[in-house]
Amino acid sequence: MCQAIQRYKRSSGCKCHVALVQNPSLSRHVHPIQQFNNSTETYPASTIVIASALHKYNLILQSLHRIARGTLYWPSDTPEITSPPAASSLTRLSDRNRPKVPAREMAPPPEKDKAGDGKAKAKSAKELKKEKRAAAVAARPEGAGGPDGVAGGGRPDLGPQGVSGSGSRPISNLNQAASSSNIPLASSNPNNAAGPSTSAPRRPPPTDSAGHPISNLAAQQNSFFSHLPHQESPDTAHALKTNKLHPIIVRLGVLMSSGQLRGANARTMGMMIAFREVIRDYECPDQAVLWKDLPIYLSPMIAWLETCRPKGVGGGNAIRWLKSEINRLGEQGDRSEAEQKDYLVEAIGLYLRDRIEFADQVIADHAKEKIKPGDTVVTYARSSVVERVLLEAWKDMREDDPEASFKVIIVDSRPLLEGRQLLEALTFAGLPCTYIILPLLSSILPQADLVLLGASALHSDGALYSRAGTAMVAMLAKEHRVPVVACVETYKFGEKVVLDGVATNELGDTKTLLELPNGKKFGKRGKDLPAALTPLHLVYDVTPPALITAVCTEIGFIPPSSVPTVLGKTSGVV
Amino acid sequence: MAAQTSLKPTDPNIRLTEALCTSLRRRQIVGSLNVALATAALVQNIVRSARYSTIDELLSLIKAVGRKLIDANPKELASTNIIRRILRMIREEYRAAAAAHIVSGPPSAPETPYLGPTTPGLHAPSNHYLSQTSTAATNINEFQFFPSSGGGVGGNSGLTRQTSLSNFVAMRHSRAQLERSGSLVDMSLSASTSSLFSPVRGITPETPGVSTMSLNRVDSEEFMKHSARLKPILVQAIDEVVGELETTHEDVARGAKEHIHSSELILTMGHSKTVETFLKQAYKDRKFTVVVAESAPSYLGHSLATSLSSSGIPTLLIPDSSIHAILPRVTKVLLGAHAVLANGGLFALSGSLACALAAKTHSKPVVVTTGQFKFAPAWNLYHEYGAVDFQGPGAVIGMDGNGGGGGVEGVEVVDPYYDYIRPELVQLFVTNEGDHSPSYIYRLIKEAYDDEDVEL
């Protein structure tokens, strides 16, 4: 067994180590929240590597400020659009759209776009569609196509900082990948410019020859899971043209939908910070009352975010809380608009601090007690809470006894492979790690002493709604009699009950599913996928409460059956 | 007494054996069936070309090869299974021939061996068995032809052996074989057949009668004069085994439609040829959908999904992480096996345990399709989780990171080949010879191999 377990040394490890120290803001070392940040900008090493709670918080603030200020841009202004004909023609399309008065731009029907095209006679509508399709396919190989797709449009009148500086920033600092290639930038425009109603034809049919022919549509067409929402690249152009969305919300939606902002905590924080910006920029119309007008102002943004990615229980709780806060403004009366806005801005900050930041801190304090020297802790994929628990437990243990140590088994699974980031973060901190993928887990579980899981939500029957695969880990742990502790903040407690992972779930991206590691493509190169084959990627699964030993929350360890109790106690707040 | 014969150093079979061992060790032969076929081919070569003067010599030659194969890769149980199977076939041929030889008198029955393995009963005079019965009654050990093959096992008197369960099973089996071979054996002859065909454990009782020994020796010596004529029959018998192997998939798939009803959603993982054939066969009669888990890190699920969907079966390809989420919709879990153990547990591709457990939590039946050549007379009661067989970590973490290792340093990466699945997690084994529950596997194994071959 020993000889078979491979110790892994990377030949050029040293070099990379140095590189990491020099540039600690490498995105994979940073929590997704911080991926808001421009990865090309470096922060002082001390602030980043493992950001303390406040640091992280501030960074997020900074990053979202930056997003609000600097990252809006007209993609068509980018001078170096490498031009496949499709891209250029479509850029022209958006060029044409741009100078128009926003009032006229209010939700133009897509047919109008097409008609305009027909007038131009540059391309027939059919040809154009074909090109769009090709461009969309070309865009797809680049995983980071999403953020680049924050396309033209926007509300020039919205947010003073919105557009002004953007012309001088051709490529946003969020475009990490764009430096390596401009293609996604160019080609995702047509994707967005295609208009809302063209979403179906925009999807290439399964017989596309470009090698990534399977869209989520195929999965959707499958009758078994047609009820589930799936991630499509959001229609940013249309969203901006409606003039009802703050640009930061559009950007946030793209980040969420592209998977750059992943994880319930990160998404909730991103969303709340974005709404804070929205509230800051919000100006109440003269004849309206703020507490009545603001929810109306926010609701299309909330709806749009929902189309980008279902916000989940945690996000839903946060939104509900925000609305109740706004309502309370009405009860308090007699305050100036600025005061009310300040109050909300501050309240959002407090919410994030109390319900997420401090909650995580308390959870880490609780959970690290359960990790003893010599233990082997199993965790699945990447949870910001679990990562924190492990790092703090490691720090504490090392402070007490420099010889003491515990081992972490990181279980990972395709297609997201989030565990790789956790692996790097933990090995960087010096934790001895074992990396394994989900199907192989059972062979190594007998060595484990504890399983730590993160969650997207904890439903009121005690079922854990979390990244797909979590239930498998818990099940195998139960089989091997290893205690399972779920680390969940109480803001993720949901009042709903979900019976299984079929009724409620999300369909994820299947592109990565069809790409094997080592660059191997699915099936034979250049050959189409068989028509009968449907790739399917469920993003979440439901771990039944019977598989969970205890839930670690900021109010302490509770059994999963106590969720309703906690919900009842805190219902005013949650 | 048993000559621990090994092949002569000059024998070309040594090279063949070494070659097979090497490729087993390096896992160049993938899949139990291929291992079994390669092993059968090797043994056939040995039977055909190696030099041996007695049947015992041949048996121990083959056993020696078997031991080598075990050493080469202890987890490829199929190789030794097939050796056990062949050993049994050889014994049967030999017994059949010997029976004929005894009946027709030592020198005068040279044609009997030519008649093939299944004929002695037909051609033996009917009183042959009666005469044997009387002999057997007087000395139960008299007609056991393998004076040298027994180890220290057993060694009790014939009567106790006769009443033991294992003997009973073997007896029943031998009778069944005899009946299958066309001889209409009188019920009263069971005693003689049992003594003749029972797996011979204690050949050398505490007090071996001199007469018995000499009789045996004379018999085998005389018989060995014809051993050259026996050779083609043995080769033919091995051909039979090979033929059985080659049709395994079709045989397993024969009853496929009885197990699958229409519009089922069947979950499988990896790429088991048996499962593939089974599903394709079933699709001729039933319409259903298959869910294939991609089975990292081998990603065999991808090839199975391609194969199934190419032949028109609606197929969903899912990542392994989605298995639990999709299971509420799944109606049946179909798994292939690497090896099936005597307790009904099995070794299967990594991830199968997770599949089976998920099926259990959702109360879905788990069906394992397998050829009987994968049934190994081994038990895995005490080392369930220690029986892990590791492979290189490249497939898990990737060699192509920054300088390999997926870009991370000092990480332990484990990548086991197989999962062990407890018998309680399996509802049914669909084999090439009928469908059996896990609790019955031990009997099938008992019937398939001779007891003395359990330890090669």
TrEMBL record, chain A:
<dbReference type="InterPro" id="IPR037171">
    <property type="entry name" value="NagB/RpiA_transferase-like"/>
</dbReference>
<feature type="compositionally biased region" description="Basic and acidic residues">
    <location>
        <begin position="110"/>
        <end position="134"/>
    </location>
</feature>
<dbReference type="Pfam" id="PF01008">
    <property type="entry name" value="IF-2B"/>
</dbReference>
<keyword id="KW-0396">Initiation factor</keyword>
<dbReference type="InterPro" id="IPR042529">
    <property type="entry name" value="IF_2B-like_C"/>
</dbReference>
<keyword id="KW-0963">Cytoplasm</keyword>
<comment type="subunit">
    <text>Component of the translation initiation factor 2B (eIF2B) complex which is a heterodecamer of two sets of five different subunits: alpha, beta, gamma, delta and epsilon. Subunits alpha, beta and delta comprise a regulatory subcomplex and subunits epsilon and gamma comprise a catalytic subcomplex. Within the complex, the hexameric regulatory complex resides at the center, with the two heterodimeric catalytic subcomplexes bound on opposite sides.</text>
</comment>
<feature type="region of interest" description="Disordered">
    <location>
        <begin position="75"/>
        <end position="214"/>
    </location>
</feature>
<comment type="similarity">
    <text>Belongs to the eIF-2B alpha/beta/delta subunits family.</text>
</comment>
<feature type="compositionally biased region" description="Polar residues">
    <location>
        <begin position="166"/>
        <end position="192"/>
    </location>
</feature>
<keyword id="KW-0648">Protein biosynthesis</keyword>
<protein>
    <recommendedName>
        <fullName>Translation initiation factor eIF2B subunit delta</fullName>
    </recommendedName>
</protein>
<dbReference type="InterPro" id="IPR000649">
    <property type="entry name" value="IF-2B-related"/>
</dbReference>
<feature type="compositionally biased region" description="Polar residues">
    <location>
        <begin position="79"/>
        <end position="92"/>
    </location>
</feature>
<dbReference type="GO" id="GO:0003743">
    <property type="term" value="F:translation initiation factor activity"/>
</dbReference>
<feature type="compositionally biased region" description="Gly residues">
    <location>
        <begin position="143"/>
        <end position="156"/>
    </location>
</feature>
<dbReference type="GO" id="GO:0005829">
    <property type="term" value="C:cytosol"/>
</dbReference>
From TrEMBL, chain B:
<keyword id="KW-0648">Protein biosynthesis</keyword>
<dbReference type="GO" id="GO:0003743">
    <property type="term" value="F:translation initiation factor activity"/>
</dbReference>
<dbReference type="GO" id="GO:0005851">
    <property type="term" value="C:eukaryotic translation initiation factor 2B complex"/>
</dbReference>
<comment type="subunit">
    <text>Component of the translation initiation factor 2B (eIF2B) complex which is a heterodecamer of two sets of five different subunits: alpha, beta, gamma, delta and epsilon. Subunits alpha, beta and delta comprise a regulatory subcomplex and subunits epsilon and gamma comprise a catalytic subcomplex. Within the complex, the hexameric regulatory complex resides at the center, with the two heterodimeric catalytic subcomplexes bound on opposite sides.</text>
</comment>
<dbReference type="InterPro" id="IPR051855">
    <property type="entry name" value="eIF2B_beta_subunit"/>
</dbReference>
<comment type="similarity">
    <text>Belongs to the eIF-2B alpha/beta/delta subunits family.</text>
</comment>
<keyword id="KW-0396">Initiation factor</keyword>
<dbReference type="GO" id="GO:0005829">
    <property type="term" value="C:cytosol"/>
</dbReference>
<dbReference type="Pfam" id="PF01008">
    <property type="entry name" value="IF-2B"/>
</dbReference>
<dbReference type="InterPro" id="IPR042529">
    <property type="entry name" value="IF_2B-like_C"/>
</dbReference>
<dbReference type="InterPro" id="IPR000649">
    <property type="entry name" value="IF-2B-related"/>
</dbReference>
<protein>
    <recommendedName>
        <fullName>Translation initiation factor eIF2B subunit beta</fullName>
    </recommendedName>
</protein>
<dbReference type="GO" id="GO:0005085">
    <property type="term" value="F:guanyl-nucleotide exchange factor activity"/>
</dbReference>
<dbReference type="InterPro" id="IPR037171">
    <property type="entry name" value="NagB/RpiA_transferase-like"/>
</dbReference>
<keyword id="KW-0963">Cytoplasm</keyword>
